[in-house]
Specification:
globular; mainly alpha; 13 helices; single chain
Length: 273
């Protein structure tokens, strides 16, 4: 139930939020720690509800069936949590954050409309994994970047860029493991569009390339926090690589999903530096 209700994603967002705050060297408005999980949970739950409605509760994917069958409870909860996040933002957070948040909300709405009209518009493939990564990472970084008040350094761009890549890669790995379920439900994903073999090859090459880049970064930067962040991202990259390299070992009992989402809890260890 923890995973079905996207609570693992919410926990990961808080961890990545702390990671961003420490990397930028700023203090967060305490209310943001309430707004962030409410907003993340609302968006992810709504996404699962949309997928559930496509098959009217007959989906081969359990979380989609669960959301459809419990829509009468979950939809009001989304309204409450989403409204609470918006209300708290307008009362306690900066105008800039609200402005950029509205912009991100328009982006999310556009994405949901595009997905719902995909077949009618005869769009062969929408890079859903990229949309998810963009919304997830930008949604978390939005407030910290506003509070930063300074241009980002190269090292900060470097770290956040890798973080975006890791979010995309994790989403693609989930689509790799869910290949047959997604295909049975008529869903389109990176793995279905490119095929299992090609997806695995692409991810393996990218994981190896990113590992080399991160190791090079360890020699390039000397700031303690930046080096710590790079080590954490290197570990995240390694775990995701293991997931795609040994798919049989992680396919049982949704172990791949547990490991994949737990990867985004690792950034919390930046607080130990």
């Amino acid at each position: 139930m923890y995973q079905v209700l996207s609570l693992d994603v919410v926990l990961g967002s808080i961890s990545v939020g702390l990671f961003a705050i420490i990397i930028l060297g700023i203090d967060a408005n305490p209310v943001w720690w309430v707004v962030l999980p409410l907003a993340v949970w609302s968006i992810y739950t709504f996404d699962h509800l949309v997928d559930g409605f496509k098959k009217k509760g007959q989906s081969h994917i359990y979380r989609h069936r669960f959301h459809y069958h419990n829509r009468k409870i979950l939809f009001p909860l989304i309204i409450i949590s989403g409204s609470a996040a918006i209300g708290l933002s307008f009362i306690f957070l900066d105008e800039q954050i609200i402005f950029f948040g509205l912009g991100l909300s328009v982006f999310v709405i556009f994405y949901f409309i595009l997905v719902s009209l995909q077949d009618k518009l005869k769009i062969r493939y929408i890079q859903k994994e990229f949309f998810i990564a963009i919304v997830y990472i930008l949604g978390i970084l939005l407030a910290p970047l506003v509070w930063h008040h300074e241009p980002l350094s190269f090292s900060q761009y470097f770290i956040f860029g890798i973080l975006l890549y890791l979010a995309w890669a994790e989403s693609v790995i989930i689509s790799y493991y869910d290949f047959h379920l997604d295909k049975a439900d008529g869903l389109k994903s990176f793995s279905i569009f490119h095929g299992l073999k090609k997806t695995r090859i692409i991810l393996t090459i990218l994981f190896c390339a990113v590992a080399i880049i991160l190791i090079a970064g360890l020699f390039l930067f000397d700031d303690k926090v930046i080096v710590g962040a790079l080590i954490i991202e290197l570990l995240m990259n390694l775990i995701l690589f293991v997931l795609i390299y040994f798919p049989v070992s992680f396919s049982k009992s949704n172990l791949f999903r547990w490991v994949g989402e737990t990867v985004f809890v690792l950034p919390v260890f930046i607080a130990a530096l």
